[in-house]
Design goal:
InterPro entries: DNA_brk_join_enz, Integrase-like_cat_sf, Integrase_catalytic. This is Tyr recombinase domain-containing protein. GO terms for molecular function: DNA binding. This protein is about 55% helix and about 0% strand. The protein is built from 25 helices and 3 strands. Strands 1-2-3 form a 3-stranded antiparallel beta sheet, with no helix packed on it. Helix 3 packs across helix 5 and helix 11 packs across helix 12. The longest helix has 20 residues.
């Protein structure tokens, strides 16, 4: 089998003859018309890109389409730079590419616009909107440069805009910029009287393929309703029924799985009009047909999602439809064949993300991040901005001190989950019924975290939520807990911006394991209690050998000491 070096593959789609950044630097140095200051700034931008990508300039193609995704993944904090400094670096590097004739110079002056576009742009600026002008600025200048009249703008121009950005931008994501332009255009249609009235089509990049329940025959809908009711209210006298009601989140998950599989079966060629009951799904031939379609969509490979769908069909057949044993065995065999390879320990992706914290600077930035955000929040200057920072600071502080699951964090109830003992001690408590694995959770909160929470609760209403809202993390206009996706995105965004690493909420549990086992190697039982695992085997499977890095470092130290003693 032929072997290709990674560097060769990384530049496989770069057009032959494309200059390298080193070529651009050489042109700068040979241009006598550039002032020394300007030449120095542009050269600094190119060198800054090389440092950020950890490559010599002669190995970096001067190709915006190659550079954009790589620069887009870089956070200034990871380079110990401020956002402004990094922006200047990229701007100078782009100017160097303009100087070399690789990308076009931007049109950004109002005087560059034709009279029709200039009049519309002045209307945009007059709104003083903080979102409208940034979304539309590049798009308007792009259309003007192509001599497209305002009334002629259509979806073809948004796609052309995306392609132009991919060719000419170093850092901006062309897909995101196109979506922002479409949003800005459609917003202007409804807000500005003189703006052209044709709306643009928002591009949907979602890979989800699930039909809604209402797309299926009524009898199928009724079957789903009965299935959900049995999960909510199992018959205690039915030997084949569930022993206890499932949690609402679990029921929602099973409903989504069922609809996703029913959709897959239809997309595989089954007539939706014939989907008259849930029995159709657990017919062995239909089950095989739908699962085969899902496998083909995943390059012929099983996955946890496909495997869990097969398990759902098995549970549906066994507990709800109570099919004959022979039919049930056929469904069970499909599930067995789809069992994915079991990875011992964490996934490679999570290990890679956790390895970021082998850098002591990144580790320190994360553990002090709650205090950093809290200190930067000044309610006297801009109250809402300060409250948003404090809210994220509290969420991260809780995750560091109490590595709980995302849903438990998002649904933290001030009366049910925060138990105050006297004037100073506060415990975070979840009953077993509210936890994924039915294991009670109890942590005592640090005094510094309690102060943050009390400060936030004293000033959050009515800006962040209605008065009297019983959830710590609330929606803005109604007294309801925040969505898990919203809270997760805000936590990840803050960490990426301030620390410069990629980290989701669930990784805090792995982070806790890393800290504990590096400090107390082999102490798995205590770690099991911290993470709330029901069985020690779960902890061992996930983290066995986790302290190997510490052990290998100690061994390396022994070798160095022996060498030093010679």
């Amino acid at each position: 089998m032929a072997y290709f070096e990674r560097k060769t593959l990384e530049t496989a789609f770069v057009k032959p003859g494309t200059p390298m950044l080193s070529d651009c630097l050489e042109r700068l140095q040979q241009d006598a018309e550039l002032s020394p200051t300007r030449a120095r700034d542009l050269a600094s931008g190119l060198r800054g890109i090389g440092k950020a990508l950890n490559r010599p300039l002669n190995e970096i193609p001067a190709d915006p389409m190659w550079l954009q995704p790589r620069l887009g993944r870089i956070e200034p904090a990871a380079l110990s730079l401020s956002p402004k400094s990094w922006s200047n670096t990229v701007s100078n590097a782009r100017a160097a590419l303009v100087h070399s004739g690789i990308v076009q110079k931007r049109d950004s002056r109002r005087s560059d616009l034709s009279p029709p576009w200039r009049a519309l742009w002045e209307d945009v600026l007059a709104t003083k909107s903080q979102s409208l002008a940034p979304a539309l600025g590049r798009f308007v200048h792009f259309l003007n440069r192509l001599d497209v009249a305002p009334a002629e703008v259509c979806d073809a121009h948004t796609e052309a805009y995306r392609q132009a950005l991919a060719i000419n931008e170093l850092r901006k994501n062309s897909e995101d910029a196109m979506r922002q332009a479409i949003y800005g255009w459609n917003h202007a249609v409804g807000r500005l009287e003189a703006w052209p009235k044709q709306k643009l089509t928002m591009v949907n990049n979602s890979k989800r393929y699930t039909y809604s329940l209402e797309d299926f025959p009524l009898t199928f809908q009724q079957g789903v309703a009965t299935f959900i009711n049995r999960m909510q209210n199992p018959d205690p006298l039915d030997a084949k029924a569930l022993r206890a009601p499932l949690r609402p989140a679990t029921i929602r998950h099973h409903r989504a799985q069922l609809l996703r599989f029913a959709t897959a079966l239809v997309l595989s060629g089954f007539q939706i009009e014939e989907m008259t009951s849930l029995d159709v799904l657990v017919d062995p031939g239909n089950a095989r047909q739908g699962l085969t379609w899902m496998l083909k969509r995943n390059n012929g490979q099983s996955s946890p999602s496909i495997f869990n769908t097969a398990l759902m069909l098995k549970a549906l057949a066994k507990y709800h439809l109570q099919v004959p044993d022979a039919q049930l065995e056929e469904i069970a065999e499909l599930a067995r064949r789809l069992t994915p390879e079991q990875n011992r320990g964490m996934t490679p992706k999570n290990r890679t993300r956790l390895r970021q914290f082998d850098d002591a600077n990144a580790m320190r930035k994360l553990v002090v991040l709650p205090d950093t955000l809290f200190a930067a929040a000044n309610p006297m200057i801009k109250l809402k901005t300060a409250l948003l920072k404090i809210e994220v600071a509290i969420a991260i502080d809780i995750l560091l001190a109490c590595p709980i699951r995302l849903r438990n964090l998002a649904e933290l109830h001030l009366e049910t989950n925060l138990k105050r003992i006297g004037d100073e001690r506060v415990f975070l408590v979840y009953d077993s019924a509210d936890v994924k694995n039915r294991r009670m959770i109890e942590f005592e909160l640090p005094a510094s975290l309690i102060k943050k929470i009390d400060r936030y609760l004293a000033i959050r209403s009515p800006i962040m939520c209605p008065a009297g809202t019983p959830w710590l993390f609330s929606q803005r206009r109604v007294a309801r807990s925040v969505s898990t996706s919203d809270l997760s995105k805000r936590v990840s965004k803050a960490i990426r911006k301030e620390v410069g690493v990629d980290m989701n909420v669930h990784l805090f549990r792995h982070f806790a394991a890393k800290l504990w086992l590096e400090r107390y190697p082999g102490q798995y039982e205590a770690l099991r209690r911290i993470l709330g695992h029901a069985e020690l085997s779960s902890t061992l499977n996930a983290y066995a050998g986790f302290e190997a890095g510490t052990a290998s470092q100690l061994f390396a130290n022994i070798i160095e000491q022996k060498r030093g003693s010679q």
